[in-house]
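Our collaborator T.R. sent over the components below with a one-line note: 'Predict the complex.' Nothing else. No constraints on interfaces, no templates requested, no preferences about which chain binds where. So this is a plain run: every listed entity goes in together, and whatever single assembly comes back becomes the starting point for the next discussion.
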Amino acid sequence: MSTRLDWKWVPRGIALGILAFIIFGPLVNLLLWTVAERWYFPHVLPLKYGFSFWANVFSPRGNAMSSLGMSIFIAVLTVIVSLGLAIPAGYALARLRLPLRGLILLALLIPQAFPNLPVYVNIARIFYQYSLNGTILGVVLVHVTHGLVYAVWIATAAFSAIDRELEEAARSMGASALRGFFDVTLPIAAPGLLASAIFVFLESLDEFTGTYFVGAPDISTLPLLLYTAGSGGNYQIASITALILLIPSIAFMFVVERFLRSDVLSKVGH
Amino acid sequence: MSAKLETEVSHGWGGEGSPQTDAAAASLAMQADPQKAGAGRFVMSVQLLGFLLVAPALAIVVLLFIVPLISSITGAFEVDGAFSFGNFAKAFELYSSDMLFTLTIVLLSSGLICLFSIMIGGYLTLGSNPRAVALLRWIYRWPLFIPFIVVGQILRTFLAKSGLMNNIFIELGVLTPMSAMSFLDWRGIVIAFVWKQTPFVALLLSGAMASIDRSTIEAAQNLGANRLRILIEIVLPQVRTTLLVGLILSFVTMMSVLSVPLMINAQSPTMITANMAFRINAYRDYGVANALGLISLLMTSAVAWIYLRQTMREHSR
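Returned assembly:
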């Protein structure tokens, strides 16, 4: 190991330093806001630190706990419904010779190809006729529509990546198609399906626009709480809520590669 | 071919979709072949089975996305129940500057995302120092799954006139307190979009770059080509499709995001997503909101068309 300073680290260090400032500066700022009791211009750092806002947020009568509970409940329901629909659809798209397969994949892709704001506005209008506005079912349906695209595409990719011969081997040893699916195919596809479950869960947890039009004000999820607190100028509450939403997102970023192996990723969209 | 398409399927098979699928599968099978269905096993065309497995998911997308999408288009041409262009007249009268503003912001952001993701992907692929590459790989991905509403909140506090960014610059002597300014206008929206979407495109792009044949790169290196030239002339042409798909997905995402314009800059000029929310919340004016929606659909359908054509071409392979 040479102790000589590599001069190439100078431009590299500056570039990486700027990037780190751009990425972590706002994140550090958020962390500071969650513990700032008093912070005003022109002080670079908060004048007083403390957790009084945390106590406020997590107090039993604070609405953050009920929003968190509601967010998780909606996200779990969304995952169950989305995967219940996506696993059979993904299997059929990956394994069975479907007529119009391209057209079906295309139809499932449409929610990604058009801006969804005009759609949410009109869903809210349609739901109003069926009294689904402001109900958990209404919000879950909106989240399912949004999450289904990812769920079906990842499930299709996960099933496509499985060697067909494994299933055929099970069938040739006398297993029924159903048994072959549950004993062979499903366990091998499980990591990809788990990734899509986590992804759908996060998408539902973070969803703002659809919940804003269909759920508000009766259904309050964390993103809606963040928005209301932020527009009321209560940056501490908004930042604490943002941090609660941030942690699972960042955790998922670090583990996503464990679940989505490159052979599955390379099959997404094929 | 037809022999391959026919397979024997046990009765419980259709049941994973939903009770309806199961019932539908059973009744269809009865019609097709009553004896075998009565015996608990039946022969069914794989095509039909496949369709029944896909149908519930397809139904959700059709009922909860395509139908409202169509009603947003028809609603745009409707004033008091009659066909009219009145909503568009009003939309252009009130929001024509916001439409230009939206298009400018989204195109500028897409351009910056393209540039930065090529820089990041390029260094990850061609970087000579493994430690610097590993460091970059660790840093650039953080915003990947951070929700837009959180991005809006953290950048609102970071970029404000009295935000941490200006405070640090003042402390370092780069800025004076008098010259400090707020970035919470169009620049804030562009920064938020680029901050959030660059990692997504860079991730797709670096994945595609990693899977291209290294031998062409090595050949060019042996011939003495520098890395910038290799990136532009050899690597980029091979990952063009991935870059395009990533940018188009980002474009559509940016056209749909409501929280960032609402939180960073809701005053005029702002993005038409914020205007649509305003028309509905303040006036229950679905007509003008739908007209604005159709205009944003037209902006994206131009790029979506390129995207769909690309995926169709890949599926037909």
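Summary for T.R.: The beta strands of chain A are 36-38, 48-49.
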